[in-house]
C-alpha cells in the first residue's frame, strides 16, 4: 500500500520542516515546496493526496495555486496563513480550500485536521453501491460518482464544497437545511458560527447555476435553504 503523500507549500523553511516532522511521525510521506510554482510542479509530477498551502508565497500565491489545482484535481486543500480575518478565511474557502488555519498554530491540531480531511476524501471517493445515482431536475444533471454538474449539456465548474452542498440539497428535495446542518454535513466539523461561510458558498453556487438564482436553491428565511425539486 502506497503511503499517503502530503504537499507542504510554505516559503518559511522552519514552518514547513516542523509540519513535515509531525506528519511523518504519523506515517505520512511529505513533499515540501518553497513557492507556489514549485508547489504546482510537485502536484503535477506525482500523486498528492492533500495539500497544505501558505497564502503569501512568492511566484504564485496560495490563492492562485488553489485555482490551478482545482482545474484538474480534487485533493483536499488546507490553507495555513498569517491572514486571520473572516474575509480572508471565506475567500480561501470559496476559492476551493477545504479548511483554513491561522498562524501561529498548534501542529497537533493541524495533524488532526489533516486526518479529518483525508477521512472525508476517502468517504467521498468510495464507489457508490447499487444503481448509478445520477440526479436530474429539468435541465440540471448531477453525477455524484463523477462529481460533475451540467445544465443544458454544459458543464458547470464547481468547487468541491459547492458540489457537496448542491448534492446534499438535491438529494433531499424540499427538505430545509439550516446553515448549521449544511456546514456540519459538508465540512464535517462543528458549526462554531460559520453561517457566513455557508452563505457565501450558496451565493457563488447560485451564480454558477445561472438563470433565476433561486430556481434550484431557495432560501427559507429564518430557517435555512432547500432545493426546489
Structure commentary:
The chain is of the alpha/beta class and 229 residues long. It folds into two domains: 5-124, Rossmann fold; 135-227, Orthogonal Bundle (Arc Repressor Mutant, subunit A). It has eight helices and eleven strands. The strands form three sheets. Strands 2-1-3-4-5 form a five-stranded parallel β-sheet, with helices on both faces. Strand 6 and strand 7 form a beta hairpin. Helix 7 (179-186) packs across helix 8. The longest helix has 18 residues, at 107-124.
Biggest sheet strand line-up: 2-1-3-4-5
- Please give the share of residues in helix: 40-55%
Number of domains: 2
Q: Count of DSSP E strands?
A: 11
Unreliable spans: 127-131
Radius of gyration: 18 Å
CATH class of the largest domain: Alpha Beta
CATH fold group of the largest domain: Rossmann fold
GO cellular component, one term: cytosol
Domain OmpR/PhoB-type: 132-229
Main location: cytoplasm
Domain Response regulatory: 5-118
